[in-house]
Amino acid sequence: MYARFAVFAAVMSLAAFYFGWEAYAEDRLLDKAPTTSATLVEAVDNRWDEDYLELDVHLPGGATVRVQTARFEAHPAKGEAMQVQYAWRGEELLARQAGIRPDRDQWIWAALGAGMAVAAVVVLRARRRADRQHSPTSRTDGDTP
């Protein structure tokens, strides 16, 4: 039981650190990124997750790329234009509304990851202590089983 929880906590810790790194890398790419216009295709109110916008981003070369972003403060009406910062990450185009500060999700994910790592260590140490107290070789009264 304890070992399963410790493994779960360790895996969740790694996942949290990964998501934190992804948020940090995205913020670094979009910091001081160029801006361009985008047309709002749809604003999605997601009940279970973050709301997001579907945008057609008009790149300087004339190409238009459809992206989804949850990085916005206020959005215009459907079909209207807005300014976005954009950056390429491999084949993927990242975008956020121009003028907003980067969020600090990476710190929340890092704190969650550290908390889960500490929980895994505490659980494993508690199990080790419990195993020592109940093992026949840990008796100090001289009796043998």
Automatic annotation (TrEMBL):
<feature type="transmembrane region" description="Helical">
    <location>
        <begin position="107"/>
        <end position="126"/>
    </location>
</feature>
<keyword id="KW-1133">Transmembrane helix</keyword>
<keyword id="KW-0472">Membrane</keyword>
<keyword id="KW-0812">Transmembrane</keyword>
<protein>
    <recommendedName>
        <fullName>DUF3592 domain-containing protein</fullName>
    </recommendedName>
</protein>
